[in-house]
Design brief:
The complex is a heterodimer. By secondary structure, chain A is mainly β. Chain A is built from no helices and eleven strands. Classes of the chains: A mainly beta, B mainly beta. Chains A and B meet through strand 4, strand 5, strand 9 and strand 10 of A and strand 5, strand 6, strand 10 and strand 11 of B.
Chain lengths: 114, 113
């Protein structure tokens, strides 16, 4: 496996369910991110992890709970979601060794909340 | 707050025609600038980036972009469109960390035969 891998690719869940999204990066990067891509809205940065420490939480509701157990893995735990949380959730990673390094994205998890 | 504006949510060109996708940013401090492409049901792939070296940046698939500080712009061009260029294109900026990106709204490019 190379790059950034996200599982599952598609997820349908009810509002009372608990599920988790998984992201794994094989690039040796030291920072990982969760982005939300909703229809007709710009991509929104949700969480930033640098060296496994959460360094940013952009006013995301507590029904989204990230976890970064090591530098290669990132999870997004979901519970009691709302229909408006349906979106494409993208994971990204980067090597923060200097300015201007780019992010590498996974293929995303398409989440539908019913 | 910093922002990125992409003029035109949808651009349609004929195969072989010039592609021009516009991007402007709002900041007094020049950021690092990126163009990403997203094909249907895929993640984002980096096309090119500007990091304060040459103002004309060449990327993959024949795309290039020019950073113009005076116009706070970073427009994406390709001399001759190909059918395979049909996708959504995102302009993004970062200021201190490459993965902390502020995105524009995206421009969907259609290519007609």
């Amino acid at each position: 496996e190379t790059g950034v891998t996200q599982t599952p690719r598609h997820l349908v869940m009810g509002m009372t369910n608990k599920k988790s999204l998984k992201c794994e990066q094989h690039l040796g990067h030291n920072a990982m991110y969760w982005y939300k891509q909703s229809a007709k809205k710009p991509l929104e940065l949700m969480f930033v992890y640098s060296l496994e420490e959460r360094v940013e939480n952009n006013s995301v509701p507590s029904r989204f709970s990230p976890e970064c157990p090591n530098s290669s893995h990132l999870f997004l735990h979901l519970h009691t979601l709302q229909p408006e949380d349906s979106a494409l959730y993208l994971c990204a990673s980067s090597q923060e060794s200097g300015a201007g390094t780019e992010a590498f994205f996974g293929q995303g998890t398409r989440l539908t909340v019913v | 707050a910093q922002s990125v504006t992409q003029l035109g949510s949808h651009v349609s060109v004929s195969e072989g025609a010039l592609v021009l996708l516009r991007c402007n940013y709002s900041s007094s401090v020049p950021p690092y600038l990126f163009w990403y492409v997203q094909y249907p049901n895929q993640g984002l792939q980096l096309l090119l980036k500007y990091t304060s070296a040459a103002t004309l940046v060449k990327g993959i698939n024949g795309f290039e972009a020019e950073f113009k500080k005076s116009e706070t712009s970073f427009h994406l061009t390709k001399p001759s469109a190909h059918m395979s260029d049909a996708a959504e294109y995102f302009c993004a900026v970062s200021y201190n960390q490459g993965g902390k990106l502020i995105f524009g709204q995206g421009t969907e490019l259609s290519v007609k035969p």
